[in-house]
# Entry
Amino acid sequence: MTEQNPFAPAPAVPEQHPAAPAAPAAPAPSVSKGRRALFAGLRWTAAVLVFAAVGSGVAYGLVRSERTDLPGLGTEDDGRWVYPALTKPTLAPGAPQPFAPDNKDGIHYAALYQLLLPAPAGSTPDPGLKQEKDQAVSADTFLEEYEPTVRPKMKQAFTDDGLRQIVARAWTMPDGTRTRIYLLRFHSSGFVDAFEGCGINMNINGVNRIEGDSTWSKARNAQSSPDLRDVSLFTEAEPAGDEQVAAGCVRGGDLQAVVLQTRKGHVASVPFHQTVILQDQLLH
# Structure
């Protein structure tokens, strides 16, 4: 039976969203108590988060600002990318924001493609990504990122574990860095928790082994930020060959984001971390 979604903005995404509980008036946007404490004073149209890397003297934000506006960035370029200002999608009246008091499971009522991180300035869209309407991609397209031996099991898990829709965006930067971001929508956060396709044991196509991103781990431990508890970063273990692959995993309610970057030599930490943090912010 086809679900009807009274809150999805036009045009509708390929798959309808669950109906949100009726409300007499649209509730004010709300975030969790922890996020209010961390991001107090941040505007979504200007979103800048300073995240200091331990031992490197490098600090980097979400959207590029003047270097003198951010501590530790007054000297040489740190390699961050220039992203468009981020904005939350507009929801229909009565639709709760994810993680609002009346939406504790974190259901997202926005069209899924609206939650994809936009490409940064200077990037070129990846023509190899096979997309349908509104950035939608098939499960088979997403599974091309994984070793052929694990694809049948993962595809069956999608059927068993409530996968509803996948959207994606991919681009290449002038230095050759390729980025692919996939957003997977499940029926609930419980199904997201059961998803095993993003983590230390993920079988990325052509990658022998991945390990935790040590630079990210040091920085996160120094920040002691509970608001990044749903973010995990990994890099291809040495020897990586001609190209290195990095993977970012972000969970947000009923959504799972998989961020993949590939670059000849090594993936640069700053733009990789910047991209994952930005995508996390859009989901929360």
